[in-house]
Amino acid sequence: MAAEIVDPTIPVVKNMLLLxxxxxxIAVKYFTPxxxxxxxxxxxxxxxxxxxxxxxxxxxxxxxxxxxVVVVYKFLGDLMFYVTGDQDENEVVLYSVLQxxxxxxxxxxxxxxxxxxxxxxxxxxxxxxxxxVDGGLILETDAGVVATRVTMRQxxxxxxxxxxxxxxLSQAFGSIKEQVARSLLK
Amino acid sequence: xxxxxxNTLEPLRAGGDSKAKDEDMEEELEYSPFYGIxxxxxxxxxxxxxxxxxxxRRCQQVITKLLYLLTQGESFxxxxxxxxxFSVTKLFQHKDVHLRRMVYLVIKEIIPSSDEVIIITSSxxxxxxxxxxxxxxxxxxxxxxxxxxxxxxxxxxxxxxxVVDKSAVVASAVLAGAIHLAGANSEVIKRWSNEVQEAINxxxxxxxxxxxxxxxxxxxxxxxxxxxxVTQLTRSNVRSPMGQCLLVRYVxxxxxxxxxxxxxxxxxxxxxxxxxxxxxxxxxxxxxxRAICNMRDVTTRELTPAVTVLQLFLSSSKPVLRFVxxxxxxxxxxxxxMAVTNCNIDMESLIADxxxxxxxxxxxxLLKTGNESSIDRLLKQIGGFMSEIADEFKxxxxxxxxxxxxxxxQKYRGLMNFLSNVLREDGGFEYKKAIVDAIxxxxxxxxxxxxxxxxxxxxxxxxxEFTFLSVQILHLMGEEGxxxxxxxxxxxxxxNRVILENAxxxxxxxxxxxxxxxxxxDLRDRILMLIKRALYDNDDEASAGPxxxxxxxxxxxxxxxxxxxxxxxxxxxxxxxxxxxxxxxALQAYLASPDQEEPFDLSSVPEVVAPSPAKAKAxxxxxxxxxxxxxxxxxxxxxxxxxxxxxxxxxxxxxxLGPVFKTCSPVQLTEEETxxxxxxxxxxxxxxxxxxxxxxxxxxxxxxxxxxxxxxLADAEEFSEEAVxxxxxxxxxxxxxxxxxxxxxxxxxxxxxxxxxxxxxxxxKEIDPTTGExxxxxxxxxxxxxxxxxxxxxxxxPAFAPNxxxxxxxxxxxxxxxxxxxxxxxxxxxxxxxxVGRILGMQACEGTDAVPPNARSHxxxxxxxxxxxxxxxxxxxxGIDAQRNVAMKLAVRSESADVSEAIHAIIQEA
Lengths: 186, 910
Description:
- Chain A: Keywords: Cytoplasm, Cytoplasmic vesicle, ER-Golgi transport, Golgi apparatus, Membrane, Protein transport, Transport.
- The complex is a heterodimer.
- Chain A is of the alpha+beta class.
- Chain A is built from six helices and seven strands; from the N terminus they run E-E-H-E-E-E-H-H-H-E-E-H-H.
- Chain A has helices at 38-52, 91-108, 115-120, 122-132, 143-150, 164-185; strands at 13-20, 25-30, 62-66, 69-76, 79-86, 133-134, 137-138.
- In chain A, the strands form two sheets. Chain A has a five-stranded antiparallel β-sheet with strand order 2-1-5-4-3, with helices on both faces. Chain A has a two-stranded antiparallel sheet with strand order 6-7.
- Chain A starts with 12 loop residues before the first strand and ends with a helix.
- By secondary structure, chain B is of the alpha+beta class.
- Chain B is built from 38 helices and 16 strands.
- The radius of gyration of chain B is 35 Å and the shape is globular.
């Protein structure tokens, strides 16, 4: 596992979870050592799900604090997206990670976020998670940029870096089309 | 391997019965592409990576399947992982970009062992120099994950260059990698400073963020460098919100470490934090607001802009923003309730918030900011709310009610009624325990509430399903009941327990009855009769296990004690000065000894228990922690004092001096960024003051030995030096500070004042940079430290006075001393109240430390204990005129007129 982040001022994401409507895991990523055992992870997912499944997080993302963590979450289709951080972490930072998480996947799957499509395109989901957080460190929170990187589209020579979000959106959709076509052919 | 992932994942699916699982499987059959996936088969499929003609799409699918297995908690054996790794490396020959991306991902998941890494490094190095930015970025991320220090040196050149790459994804990848590597390889990465500095100016927000983070991580141990970095960054323009967020954190740290400003001096960097409140990104706004609210000794004026932005968040449509605002304001409300009152209207509308965490935080905030008049209305609102929330939130609310009741003891009736109402509702053990605990505390601290509380508890045990709580309550009844006006009324409730309950509760009820018998002679005969009936108790507690105390046995014992014992009925309540823990340990040792012929000797039990090393204090978690966070104003220093007390106890010469009366807050005696860091903590004892100097050596290149502090007593005649305990070697930054002590004696119980010049003395030895060894001899040197002052406030500690008026009336009237003072111009009365409170270092009572907005006059009630355990109460009346001149009338009562005089002296000198 990745070396830990030593500097305590750096915001750290403890884990990202994508669960289905019954609380079963679709894709998860844990970044802190206290959660490396499968049992610990399973218990954690169970309690997160139990505490959140009856709340309404469809419109705006919701937030809950328990034990020593803060969790921000959002339900989309029949899926639940969670991002966890330490209880002292800036919740708004975690929220921006959560936004990148579900929005990038929403883009990659062309608004068809449901368990079936997510499983069929699990590679894209895993790549998106990999592009957002690297070993607990926040790598990118712009969903458009994440989606482009997942599809391995180059930023391109001379593309205006000052505004990566805008350019990449259209690029992303171009390549997403390709991706979806690919997955349908499987 | 025949089992499917579903089977091996039993823990992940715990809770579902088999029927439900079957249904799940059928459902999954419909749409999961991974249905029936099985490790053995996938590993078999993975052999296709070795084919001469690789089908990229197929390979991608197989990799996805491997990752799916890993995600689901499946693990590969070393051999399996190794095999997968080797075949995956073959895929580097293929040009398909999407396949390559998956290859990178899977390598990061199955981290190859160090001897295998070498196989892919050349491929990764090739990708690192590719024209495709995404190849380069991903290759760098994989490399940073798998390389060791030695290999880092080999490829350092490339990585360093990548830091300033014009492609954001590449720069980001290497910066992120470096942040992870910085822990173990900071020396190498420090050499990239110039490049990282350039990256800080990057136009891409995330690159800027990561560069700032890395720069700070490399300098985190060097405070001078950090403050330089902060100065530089606050002047330059950090555009990235995340980067700005980091900067706010660094600034907050610098503020926390700097000396608190004297008087009206503006805090360094406060302006910067305030300007961040106007940032366009919510991430930064909140970070800055939180930083301001968490500042040490923050004033109302400093708080106002932060509270204003948080107030806007309160009515946001986003739950996350409402949550952070109410959570932060809740914390502010503990120290500055008046600063938050402006938000009360927004806060009240949050009581109905669908997010229960937000609602609970809003309620507890309101309870903290509320004044006496609003309590009844609030209780009504909460009453409706309580039935809708989960137990964990209820516990938090009950805690807040308890705190409120201690703050406004006159309101005990309404609050106690509320507690007893919720006690009758359904709830789990933790919740009921919190309520019972709250009632117990109120009974203990508010004498008027005792009878009412006992009556409520009596009713509760009639129908209590928790043995633990019943026993606790019955014990309390035995303690408190006999001393009430009408003890007889409790007997019926207690005896009912003897008839109706399980053995443990019966035994506890019996003990409680015996207490009544012992202390109430009029009731004794009737109680004896009741106890006699218990002699025929059919079930014995002992059957529940060893160590139990039989009901019949107890009955026999009490009958003897109440009727025949030579010491009289009082023997029911032996006042042993033996800690239960010590007794338990001694008895266990006795049982373990082979020779039990000799009867157990009670005098063999030590009277003082050795402090248990693991002081596991239940730490509040989750919401409770958030709500309680500010209460640490009370408990925080205490635990710190505990730590100090343990430290002193560990030194025999200091332990002999007796218990510590008060530990004053640490004072820094060196400038920021000097070679030595010295912090002084004053411990006041009955007849001594112990000066504890915590010393840290911040220079690696030298060793400091025989460290001691010489204190000049010229300006402090009443003190005499009793002992100096030197420190052998001054530890470095990593090991944490080492201690040297100076003990000064003063007439016992006196409040001697003084100011001391201090000189740090030591033997310095340079370390030879080539060998890393310290030179043999070294030389003596000294260093002038800042002065330390012993002020009168050092001899006063805050004490809780549950009922100020009663306490005031109880103190001798002739000890009262009154005088008027003018304290000059102030911003507001709140300012004046805070200032005087700080000088006296006493506990404000009945919430009088909060001044209502725009008040022209205010009364502050303070309570404290002066060294020698003398109680002192202070009543301060403030008035402010149109020119903002504040005048105050100070009235002091205490158990000794000298002390009253001393309090006036403190104010005169301040």
